[in-house]
Amino acid sequence: MSLRIVVTVKYVPDATGDRHFADDLTVDRDDVDGLLSELDEYAVEQALQIAEEADDAEITVLTVGPEDAKDALRKALSMGADKAIHVEDDDLHGTDAIGTSLVLAKAVEKAGYDLVISGMASTDGVMGVVPALLAERLGVPQVTLLSEVSVEDGVVKGRRDGDAASEQLEASLPAVVSVTDQSGEARYPSFKGIMAAKKKPVTSWDLSDLDLDADEVGLEGAYTVVESATERPARTAGTIVKDEGEGGKQLAEFLAGQKFI
Amino acid sequence: MAEVLVYVDHVDGAVRKPTLELLTLARRIGEPVAVALGAGAGDTAAALAEHGAVKVLTHDAAEYADYLVVPKVDALQAACEQVSPAAVLVPSSTDGKEIAARLALRIGSGVITDAVDLEAGDEGPVATQSVFAAAYTTKSRVSKGTPVITVKPNSAAVEPAPAAGEVEALSVTFSEQATGTRVTGRTPRESTGRPELTEAAIVVSGGRGVNGAENFAIIEALADSLGAAVGASRAAVDAGWYPHTSQVGQTGKSVSPQLYIASGISGAIQHRAGMQTSKTIVAVNKDAEAPIFELVDYGVVGDLFEVVPQLTEEIKARKG
Ligand SMILES: Cc1cc2nc3c(=O)[nH]c(=O)nc-3n(C[C@H](O)[C@H](O)[C@H](O)COP(=O)(O)OP(=O)(O)OC[C@H]3O[C@@H](n4cnc5c(N)ncnc54)[C@H](O)[C@@H]3O)c2cc1C
Ligand SMILES: Nc1ncnc2c1ncn2[C@@H]1O[C@H](COP(=O)(O)O)[C@@H](O)[C@H]1O
């Protein structure tokens, strides 16, 4: 029996670019270059490693996002995933985490899965909640925020470094896993991988393919509203001194003036 | 007055500071009712009462320690059914955000994560968030159901406000999912004797410029002179000089102290994401062009191996 792995990947605005909001207070995805969320590369990497260990495995990468999100799928395919699913629909614009998890759950179920692997958080929203929501919706174990993961005999094991302790976790498949950036560097696509990716199948689904109605997703279906978004005022230029031998003392003087000493 | 559920983060009955901050925020929108789970849950009552909890719902069962996240969601859901709260507040921790999200989904609500402030609004609580590596400040609210909001540490002052804090046993029936993910081992983090990174009033961080694990002693000495927590950039963590639990930034801890001192850190966007909301920012870097200097209230262009020890000595001298 083949191990069916679905990796959820998000197409996000480049964090090193000038990210901002559109007029409807959603993340502007038009004016800023996008890419596969770097944190989801770690999910693709772990999927590849798990597939290499398994006798027989197939990796599907799944994204919910606009037309350009295909770029994220291509990147994941060129790293070595086998096929891709793109859920795309104009009515998805403005979908929040609760809605995204609904669409992902429907798509994952339609695709068929034994193991879902997600990133720890998207680099734009940074909520880090979609994997837990997905597990809740699918009714399967969540084995999230793993810095180490392995799958053997239908059981997933991993290490979760929490705030107070490091925990060893274990669950039976099917399950939803998310991995951190501590799980191991993601590989670069090889030239061969990039060429091969061009021929790999990308399936497109819209809301009707997933039996979803427009009002269940998008801005209308959202459970949260952003009332305002204001650019943080530039910090007032601070004092910068060059150390001429007294830099530490000058700094102490500043800290004393601010009552930190 | 409407009741507001506050999820209690505690270690064997010792309430962690972010929970006390939540009680301050909860009082702005209603009467805080605390929910404490697991071993020592009952021991939290005194501290919670002192900070405004009118009631403390407690429940202990082995499931809370033996299985991940879901048992706590079951308990919070039971508390919601018992209290019908106006909002649910949860500390933004690794577990906290996942608990909050699953709860929101179950009770047909929305979830807001990582709020840095909270105020009452005409249509329910309004949460302030800092997004895009703190380049923007947003105000949001949950528009359907009971708002579930997670709040970052250091978002409010801890204020004593004595209240009844009456302890009441919560009755919880665990769901089928509760036992899905087993915790087969747990290694508690070793205490460094320094303040908790996310809770500290002062954070002293070192980056690639520190150039070696052994040199972190310089950063630690400065931290200790100020009673501060020690942080590190990802470059320093990846090099193995300092533990990942101390990493500040997008994929590490997000800190918001009164004072942040960065030494040998360039100020990459992912690092800024975790420290840009600090009240006062200070940097020592030998490169005058380093982006960290765009953020600072006070910066010293110089060699950290000269500047930091001198600073530490001067602080010690001034403190006598
Ligand atoms: C998805 C993703 C997530 C990330 N998450 C994080 C994160 O959570 N946290 C994080 O920090 N980074 C994160 N990064 C990495 C980030 O992009 C930077 O690479 C990292 O912050 C750089 O660390 P640094 O400033 O210590 O090193 P560098 O950028 O190499 O800077 C070192 C600085 O030290 C100065 N210096 C050197 N020697 C001295 C000296 N003797 N005295 C004074 N100054 C000196 C140099 O001038 C330089 O400015 C992430 C990256 C990605 C892609
Ligand atoms: N639109 C999306 N399409 C596919 N996967 C997503 C999407 N949004 C979030 N995810 C997955 O959920 C993880 C956590 O995202 P978040 O909760 O938004 O921080 C990401 O790392 C992805 O694996």
UniProtKB/TrEMBL annotation, chain B:
Explain the purpose of this protein.
The electron transfer flavoprotein serves as a specific electron acceptor for other dehydrogenases. It transfers the electrons to the main respiratory chain via ETF-ubiquinone oxidoreductase (ETF dehydrogenase).
Q: Which organism is it from?
A: Streptomyces ruber
| Cofactor entry | FAD
User: Pfam families attached here?
Assistant: ETF (PF01012), ETF_alpha (PF00766)
Q: Name the SUPFAM superfamilies for this protein.
A: Adenine nucleotide alpha hydrolases-like, DHS-like NAD/FAD-binding domain
Q: Note how many cofactor molecules are bound and how.
A: Binds 1 FAD per dimer.
One GO BP annotation of this record: fatty acid beta-oxidation using acyl-CoA dehydrogenase
Output the Gene3D superfamilies linked to this UniProt entry: HUPs, TPP-binding domain
Q: Which UniProt keywords apply?
A: Electron transport, FAD, Flavoprotein, Transport
> For binding FAD, which residues are annotated in this chain's numbering?
208, 233-234, 247-251, 264-271, 285
Question: Could you tell me what this protein is called?
Answer: Electron transfer flavoprotein subunit alpha
How does this chain assemble? Answer: Heterodimer of an alpha and a beta subunit.
Q: Domain Electron transfer flavoprotein alpha/beta-subunit N-terminal: where?
A: 4-183
InterPro entries in alphabetical order: DHS-like_NAD/FAD-binding_dom, ETF_a/b_N, ETF_a/FixB, ETF_asu_C, ETF_asu_C_CS, Rossmann-like_a/b/a_fold
Q: Does the keyword Transport apply?
A: yes
Q: Which SMART domains match?
A: ETF
What's a single GO MF annotation on this record?
A: flavin adenine dinucleotide binding
Tell me yes or no: is GTP-binding among this UniProt entry's keywords.
no
In the record, the note on similarity to other proteins reads: Belongs to the ETF alpha-subunit/FixB family.
